[in-house]
Design goal:
By secondary structure, this protein is of the alpha/beta class. The chain has helices spanning 24-36, 53-56, 62-74, 94-113, 144-154, 172-178, 224-242, 268-285, 300-315, 336-345, and strands at residues 4-7, 44-45, 82-85, 88-90, 119-122, 161-165, 184-191, 213-218, 246-251, 290-294. The strands form two sheets. The protein has an eight-stranded parallel beta sheet with strand order 2-1-5-10-9-6-7-8, with helices on both faces. The protein has a two-stranded antiparallel ribbon with strand order 3-4. Helix 1 crosses helix 9 (300-315), helix 4 (94-113) packs across helix 5 and helix 7 runs parallel beside helix 8 (268-285). Bound molecules: zinc ion.
């Protein structure tokens, strides 16, 4: 079996401010779980690099890059914390952490494309999928996954890259970056209506990119059964039709039933099953090339177990039972109508 890589760097812990849910403790919980369970020892460490301004400019405006750098360097008085929007802080270490976060996903993507490893999980922060080409928002400074996708296309010669985003929030930044780009398929499942507001099924791309943005807006209360229907009935056939050469995953774990920020009921086994489906797609379509990048997930125990569940699929391990994996037995919401709408919008009419 090809090696499974991981990216981590202590610099990722330098971005933080007390009381904020997007905290360094998130990564510490994951790392300590992976160490204790012995999984980290079965993976190959991929050293992150620092993304350069030229890397970031594949997606972001020079004004945004300069604003994040200058705000972090100047800091906010008296605590050193400055806010780019009501949710999104920077501290003096944030710019360096953000460069290495984006650079971590770039390094993992290069290692996979070079055949040094087969797949990877990037344990990076700050997260990225809300960062638009011109705006940092929603805890995100630079869009790590979008920068890696643009790098793979523009510098590594790939023709098609698919991004699957199972964070509970819509990845508005990633959608914006590629909305008219026919070479990137963006598929998002998310709670709707919910922060940041978009992600309706009728948002399908524009111009040459028409049809390559796929939004699955799901009502609150969806659990494993509803999520697996969305992935089997919509995500899987559309990714297969697109024939990507690389699969990137915006891996947020805030749809977990234990998560404090959202109202979905996905359990750890649900993440394992979604990740199994994505791995099978990568094996079928991309020579197994799949790179996960951490986005959200704010219950530290659920986060660690759910990341581990994804890594277990890459390593070929069985699902590891946790104490959080019993999904609720109450019936979930009916998603027939929204799935039918998404299928109609994307020409999947036989499901
Ligand atoms: Zn999220």
């Amino acid at each position: 079996m090809p090696a499974v890589g991981y990216v981590y760097d202590p610099l990722y812990l330098e971005h933080g401010t007390p009381g904020h849910p997007e905290s360094p403790a998130r990564l510490q919980s994951i790392i300590s779980h992976l160490e204790r369970s012995g999984l980290l020892g079965r993976m190959v460490e991929v050293r992150p690099r620092d993304a350069t301004p030229a890397d970031l400019a594949l997606v972001h405006s020079h004004e945004l890059i300069a604003r994040v750098r200058e705000t972090a360097e100047e800091g906010g008085a008296p605590t050193g914390v400055a806010w780019l929007d009501p949710d999104t802080y920077v501290v003096p270490g944030s710019y360096r952490a953000a460069l290495r976060s984006a650079g971590g996903v770039l390094a993992a993507t290069d290692a996979v494309l070079d055949g040094e490893i087969g797949s990877a999980f990037c344990l990076v922060r700050p997260p990225g999928h809300h960062a638009t080409p011109i705006r940092a928002m929603g805890f995100c400074l630079f869009n790590n996954v979008a920068v890696a996708a643009a790098h793979a296309l523009e510098r590594r010669g790939l023709e098609r890259v698919a991004i699957v985003d199972f964070d509970v929030h819509h990845g508005n930044g990633t959608q914006d970056a590629f909305y008219s780009n026919p070479r990137v398929l963006y598929v998002s499942t998310h709670q709707y209506p919910f922060y940041p507001g978009g992600g309706y099924w009728a948002e399908t791309g524009e111009g040459e990119g028409e049809g390559t943005t796929v939004n699955l807006p799901l009502p609150r209360g969806c659990g494993r059964e509803e999520y697996l229907r969305a992935y089997r009935e919509v995500c899987e056939p559309l990714v297969r039709r697109f024939r990507p050469q690389l699969l990137l995953v915006s891996a947020g774990f805030d749809a977990h039933l234990a998560d404090p920020l959202a109202q979905m009921l996905l359990d750890t086994r649900g993440y394992y099953e979604i990740a199994s489906l994505l791995k099978a797609l990568a094996d079928e379509l991309c020579d197994g090339r799949i790179v996960y990048a951490l986005e959200g997930g704010y219950d530290h125990t659920a986060l660690a177990w759910s990341v581990r569940a994804c890594i277990d699929t890459l390593l070929g391990n069985e699902f590891a039972e946790d104490l959080l994996s019993a999904g609720p037995s109450v019936p979930g919401p009916n998603i027939d109508t929204v799935l039918a709408a998404v299928k109609g919008a994307h020409g999947l009419n036989n499901g």
